[in-house]
Amino acid sequence: MSLGARSVAVFAVAGTAFVGAGVGAPVAAAHGADAVIADLQAEGYNVNINWVNGANQQLSDCTVVRVNNPSSSPEPLPGDTVYVDVTCPNGLY
Questions:
Q1: What is the pLDDT of residue 7?
Q2: Of 45, 59, 70, 93, most Cβ neighbours within 10 A?
Q3: Per-position DSSP letters for 1-70, written without gaps between them
Q4: Which pLDDT value is given to residue 62?
Q5: Half-sphere exposure of 45 (CA within 13 A, CB side)
Q6: Is residue 2 part of a domain?
Q7: Span of the secretion signal (predicted)?
Q8: Residue 39 and residue 84 in contact, taking contact as beta carbons nearer than 8 Å
Q9: Model confidence over 1-57: pLDDT tens digits?
Q10: Number of domains in the chain
Q11: Any domain includes 14
């Protein structure tokens, strides 16, 4: 997966009730960023990635450190966007 830009908008179509406490929950860091983003998309959110570092890395190698949902709605509405802060290893081990 080639991302190129520092910010990538990923749009979702499906929608179910996920949000509540789950959007900002710490479990986001337990999986690769790609899985977290896919889960948010499956819940009906548009996802905007904020690259904290490592924008040239694969999302599966990265970690979501924060999910910001500026909407006050308990369920995603059409067009709701969440902002996902993603950090990746920089390759300097």
A1: 35
A2: 45
A3: ----SSS-EE------S-HHHHTT-GGGGGSBHHHHHHHHHHTT-EEEEEEEE-TTS-GGG-EEEEEE--
A4: 94
A5: 27
A6: no
A7: 1-21
A8: no
A9: 433 333 333 433 223 233 333 444 434 445 799 999 999 999 889 999 999 988 888
A10: 1
A11: yes
